[in-house]
Structure formats: C-alpha cells, structure tokens
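Form P-L/3: holo structure prediction, ligand 1-deoxynojirimycin.
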Amino acid sequence: MNTPSTRTRDGAGTEWWREAVIYQIYPRSFADSDGDGIGDLPGVVDRLDDLVALGIDAIWLSPFYPSPQADAGYDVADYRDVDPIFGRLTDADRLIAEAHRRGLRVIVDLVPNHTSSAHPWFVEALGAEPGSAARDRYVFRDGRGQHGDRPPNSWRSVFGGPAWTRTDNPDGTPGQWYLHLFDAGQPDLNWDSEQVRDEFVAILRFWLDRGVDGFRVDVAHGLVKQADLADWHYPEETTSGDHVDQPRPPMWDQDGVHEIYRQWRSVLDEHPGQQILVAEAWVQPAERLAAYVRPDEMHQAFNFEYLEAAWTSDAQRTVIERSLAATDKVGAPTTWVLSNHDVLRHATRLALPIGAARPRGIGANDPQPDTALGLRRARAATLLMLALPGSAYLYQGEELGLPEHTTLPDEVRQDPTWRRTDHTERGRDGCRVPIPWEADSPSYGFGPTDASWLPQPPVWAEYALDRQRDVPGSTYELYRTALRLRRDLGLGAGRLRWLESPEDVLACCVDEVTVVTNFGAEPVSLPPGTEPLIASGPLNGSGRVPTDVTVWARQRVR
Ligand code: NOJ
Ligand code: MG
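OUTPUT (holo model):
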C-alpha cells in the first residue's frame, strides 16, 4: 500500500531554487589558470562549459574575498573585493556574466559570524579602549580571575582550544579577551551592534548589484549569542549528531538570529529577480532547522541531518520523511547534500562502519577505508538523493567519485583544526585536494603546472574527467545521466510516496519513477511491471538489484 507523503507541489516550476541542483565550487581546488597551484576565478570561467555539460543549475562559490587564509578564506578581511590569489573584482564580474550567459546561476558565500583579524574593524578595535565603539563591533570581555588571565567563559573553539584569545594593550600589558568560535584569526562579530547589521545589509546590496543569484550564509546559527555568555560544559557539537536531548547551547541557534534573516529577506525581496539565502546551520532537529526557512526568512537550509544519516534503509527513510515533513510545514523545499568542503567525502565516509560517528579527518596511520565499497555506496546514495523532491547540492569532484585523500602527509595540512587540537584531529584538508581533469596533464589538469597547494595522490589519474567522459558505467556518466533524467522527469518538483518493501530495502515513487535502494545482503526484484531506467551499479543476471545499488525504474512500456 502506498502512503502519500505530505509533500506538496506549491510553487514548483515557478521558483528556480525549489528544485535546483547546485554545484559547490571550492575555488582554491577547482581550476588554476595561472599555475601558482591555487585555483582561481579565471580558472572557474575556463571550466564553465564542463559544468554545463554535467547538467547543473547553479554554482555556489566558497569565499574568494581578500583574506589572510587562516581558514581558507572563511576569514574575510574585505567583503567587497577579490583576493589577489583568486583574481580581481573584474574576474568575479566576468564569472557572473559568463555563468549567466550559459544559463547557470551564481551563489556567493557570505561570512557574517566573524571577520578576519586583519579586517580594518578588528585592527581598529585592538588599538581602541575597552568599552569603545570600535570594540563593541566584536565580543571583547575582561578575563576572569584577579589578573584577568583566565578566559571570560568556558566556551571552546569548534577547531579546538579555547574560544577566547587575550589581547595586548597598546602599551604592551595584557588586555581584554575576544571571542572566536573558530580560529583566533576569526573574531566573532557582535550582532547587537547596529553598525554590524547595517554593514551586512550594505554587503548584500553590493553583491546583489553585481548580479549574484544568492548567498550561502556561513554559520547562520551562530550570529547571536545568549546575552549572559553563560558557561557551557557539553561538547560544542551538541547541535549536530545525536545531541538533540541536551539543552540548547548558548552560542548556537539562538532565537535572535531569525530577526536578522527577516531583514535580509526583505532586502532580497526588494531586488528584482529571484535571489536566495541558504543557511549553513548545524541545527537539529529538523523542525528547529525549518524555522530558518519560514516564508519571510531564508529560502533553503542545508540538510546536514541527511548527510549524517546512517547507511541503513530505516535511517534513510526516517531522515527523508522527517526532512520533507518539516520543510513542507513552512512551505520550503528540502535540500539534500552528501558532501562539502567540511566533511569526509561521501565516497569515503560510506565505507566506514555503518552508524559510526563521522571522523574529523583520516590520516595515513589510521585504518584505511575500502575505496570500492565506499564508491559503490556513494553512487547508490547519490542516485537516491537525485530522485528526491527538493534541491540538491553537489560538491566538486563527487561527480568523479573522488574519495577523501586519506594519506596526506601531516606536514602539508593547513586546516587550523590540526594545529588547534594539538595534532589529534586531522581536519578537512583531505576533501579539499585539487580535483583531476586530465589524467596525463601536469597536476591532472588542475592547472598548467605541477603546482598544487595540497599534493594530489597518484590515484587521481584514474578519476580524471577525461578518463570518465563518454565511458559507460563511469561515475561521471552516472551523474550526467541522472541529472538529465531528473530534469526531464521533473523529479525535483515531484511528489514522494513510499512503497511497501522488504526489510533493508527502501522503495518509493517520485511521480512516475520508482526508486529502489537495496541495503540488504540479498538481491531484490524491482516492483512487478517496471523496468530499470538507470542504476548506480550493474544489476545481477536476472535483473535484480544487488546490495548497495539504487535503481530508478518506470512502468514497462509494451
Ligand atoms: C563553515 C564553513 O563551511 C567552514 O569551512 C568554516 O571553517 C566555518 N564555517 C567557519 O567560517
Ligand atoms: Mg592560481
């Protein structure tokens, strides 16, 4: 028997973002035009035709703004320019124009929780008196203890270590402390400050006027802190994973953030066109996350609960059902995402023991995941994801089936996590390695030279785009075909109904398409009367769906 989901078709087809497939470009690792080993904006322009061929609707670019690169550009020193390593402002303009010419939309990254410590505001604050207007744009406090030499509260940085750093007074004596939920080079802004609020509205307008189609909002759940900055003794990751039973932490998901996004929404609504706001908010449960996408707030929020769901039919069905129900209630589309620049690539993650906590990086001395198993599951997961109603996010390189680089030499690591955890957590460099385009070119076609800011493993040759293009069965062709079918069949705007299925099998219909993923040990048959349209791996001899394979099927036509 079929159980209809609560999915509605409201707005489908009229608002591009409701069903868009959005491809994340991590500029420093996508394409390098000048051979310095760091990807750049002209490099992106040169590869736009390849993205059109893949069949995506939009690109989202991680930050390319002037920055000391303490956190790979998520430490912004100037929100209205381009860092010379990535090009110039005119390159951003050209990229937007060239993308639009090809029918691709462009989303940029907005980093409002913190600036770089090199931002002129922070430099000014350091030189100013405690209690001054310049300090009030950030979160400065006196330390605890008689000499103020203990941090103002117990908060920890997401990257490890205390979330506070002590400053020196202009005369060299120790001074106040400032808050940084991330690296010390990323001081948190004070969102009670009118100046901070006005500045970000002006930044939104600056990029809207340059023609962008939206903003991915970094740490959207962090801007407002509980006013008393109360101590917190639970782990800081409490808003993700299995920690929904704990009280809400004083630094995350405070109700006050929503007012900010309502203001931003009105700024976007005043602007002609359909620009969007996308929340990067590690917030659970799904109902709390859905508050970010109420009709007068953001348009989308990344569904990290989906990314973190275990590879079992139960966990997948539960998270899909919950996500659709929560966003339906507020009239927003669900987003689906499996990889990004902050997590282990899903081709590697899915090879880890099922249900295990997601590790923060893997090193050469750790147990090495089974690449073939990971890829098999990743292909099945992706094909399932691309059938689901709503909007999907892809991370550069996943269309090649790229695994995490799990044997990077520790001495090349750049993620501040590695340093700040005293070399206990390896961090995110393994998913940020420059991607391969051509097997036999220098840096596998990443750039014109061998230079690459993180070393590429020799196995990258096998994954290069030119080894997969037009090769039946390749991961790249799987993505390309799935994206074409998804578009032709309107799956993103579809309606999902669950089908009854054996244990360990997930089966549903999205409009006319039947989707079956087999998580169990035994092959399963497709529903009677259907025939396969596309499969994430070879079917067995009798046309049955093997373990860790997803199939899209349709009614057999006779
Ligand atoms: C989330 C970004 O995706 C991540 O890369 C960054 O380190 C933090 N926010 C801090 O900006
Ligand atoms: Mg370059």
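COMMENT: The CA atoms of residues 439 and 462 lie 7 Å apart.
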